[in-house]
Design a protein that fits this description.
The structure is a single chain. The protein is an alpha/beta fold. The protein has one domain: TIM Barrel (Alpha-Beta Barrel), CATH 3.20.20. It contains twelve helices and nine strands. Strands 5-4-3-2-1-9-8-7-6 form a nine-stranded parallel β-sheet. The radius of gyration is 17 Å and the shape is globular. It starts with a helix and ends with a helix.
C-alpha cells in the first residue's frame, strides 16, 4: 500500500482530516529548507508538498513566486530537490511526500530519468499544475509504473461535465483549488467548499484535499471539518520570507517560528469536528 493511501486510511479511522503543508525546496537555502522539512512531521504535518523551484510559477501568487526565485538564486535545482527528499527519507520512512510544481523542470530533467530518480528518492506523488489531464500520459504512465501517484487538480469551474476527465487516471487524492486565481489570494466560504467537495465525491472515491487561501487555524479547521485534507502553503512560505534579513539569510529563530505556526495550524485541523 502506498504511503498516501495508508495515511488517508489511518486518518479516516481516527475520524479526522489530513494536514498538508507546502514549502518550496531550497528556500531560502538548502540547509534551512531541509531543517524546516525535517521538522514538519513533528509539527503536525501529515503530508508534505515540496515545491520544485521554477522561474515562471504562473499559478502561484507573489509569496510562492518569490520563494521560487530565492530558491533558484541560492542554487536550487531538481537535483537538489531530489537530494532533499533522499535526506528526508533517511530519517522518515512514513510521512507521504508529494512534489508540486510545473512540467518544464520535469521535462528538462528527462521524464524517465525523473520518475526513476523520484521513486528511488522516496517521492509518493506529483502535482503538476500546468499539465492538463488530456496531455499528462507521457508523465502519468511512467510515474504509475514507478509507484508514484499523479494527483489532479479540480477548481470552482470544474463542472460535472469536466470532472470525469479530470478524475480519469487520477490517483493519490484530488486537490481542490478552492478559489479561482493564484495561490495566496482570497479564501472561499465554508458553504462553497462544502458544496464543491460533495460534488467531487459523487464522481470519485479518492480523498479530496482543499487548498488556496487557508491562513489561520480557524480556516484550517473549517476545511478539515468538510474535506479529507486541508492544505496550507502561502501562509507558511510568507512566514519564512518574514524571517529573512535583507540578504535573504534566516534570522535567529526563524525555523522554530515556522514550525510553531505549523503546530497551531495542525491543532486547528485536529480539533475540527467531522
Amino acid at each position: 500500500m502506498s504511503r498516501l493511501k495508508s495515511c488517508f486510511e489511518r486518518l479516516a479511522g481516527e475520524n479526522r482530516a489530513a494536514f498538508v503543508t507546502f514549502v518550496t525546496a531550497n528556500d531560502p537555502d538548502f540547509g534551512t529548507s531541509l531543517e524546516i522539512v525535517m521538522g514538519l512531521p513533528d509539527a503536525g504535518a501529515d503530508i508534505i508538498e515540496l515545491g520544485m523551484p521554477f522561474t515562471d510559477p504562473s499559478a502561484d501568487g507573489p509569496a510562492i513566486d518569490r520563494a521560487a526565485q530565492r530558491a533558484l538564486a541560492s542554487g536550487g535545482s531538481m537535483i537538489k530537490t531530489l537530494e532533499m527528499v533522499r535526506r528526508f527519507r533517511a530519517v522518515n520512512a512514513d510521512t507521504p511526500l508529494v512534489l508540486m510544481g510545473y512540467f518544464n523542470p520535469v521535462y528538462a530533467y528527462g521524464i524517465d530519468r525523473f520518475t526513476a530518480d523520484a521513486a528511488a528518492a522516496g517521492v509518493d506523488g506529483l502535482i503538476i499544475v500546468d499539465l492538463p489531464p488530456e496531455e499528462d500520459e507521457e508523465l502519468r504512465v511512467p510515474a504509475g509504473k514507478a509507484g508514484i501517484d499523479v494527483i489532479r487538480l479540480a477548481t470552482p469551474t470544474s463542472d460535472d461535465t469536466r470532472l470525469p476527465t479530470i478524475l480519469s487516471g487520477a490517483s493519490g487524492f484530488v486537490y481542490y483549488v478552492a478559489v479561482a486565481g493564484v495561490t495566496g489570494g482570497k479564501s472561499a466560504t465554508k458553504d462553497d467548499i462544502s458544496a464543491a467537495v460533495a460534488r467531487i465525491k459523487t464522481h470519485t472515491d479518492l480523498p479530496v484535499a482543499v487548498g488556496f487561501g487557508i491562513r489561520t487555524p480557524e480556516q484550517a479547521a473549517d476545511v478539515a471539518s468538510i474535506a479529507d485534507a486541508a492544505v496550507v502553503g502561502s501562509a507558511i512560505v510568507s512566514l519564512i520570507e518574514g524571517g529573512l534579513d535583507n540578504d535573504n539569510k534566516p534570522k535567529k529563530g526563524m525555523t522554530e517560528d515556522v514550525l510553531t505556526f505549523t503546530r497551531k495550524l495542525a491543532d486547528g485541523v485536529r480539533k475540527a469536528k467531522r
